[in-house]
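FORM 7B: Structural annotation worksheet

SECTION A. Query
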Amino acid sequence: MEHVVILITVSSEDEGVRIGKTLVEDGLIACVNIIPNIRSIFKWEGKISDEKEYLLICKGKKERFSRIVEKVKELHSYIIPEIISIPILEGSPDYLKWIDEVLR
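SECTION B. Predicted structure
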């Protein structure tokens, strides 16, 4: 499984755009979708948090994941940002080929 979807939550649309554009410009990700108005409930520093966030859905390649993590940590406002990679088990051959071409 060389193709992946990477999920990243961010605190604002501006932060999402900044991180998304950088990942695409640096050739780490082929495409980023920004989903607004998600609600995240999580435990942080011993307390339950209930926050409005934005979700980045990034399409790329597994081999670049460690570089993506490094870049996101450089740009992100959170101490521990959510950066999760999910393998793409199947996909449109044309779309997967496009990812390969963009990330050459």
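SECTION C. Observations
Residues 3-102 form a domain with the Alpha-Beta Plaits fold (CATH 3.30.70.120). Residues 3 and 91 are 9 Å apart (CA to CA).

SECTION D. Sign-off
Analyst initials: ____
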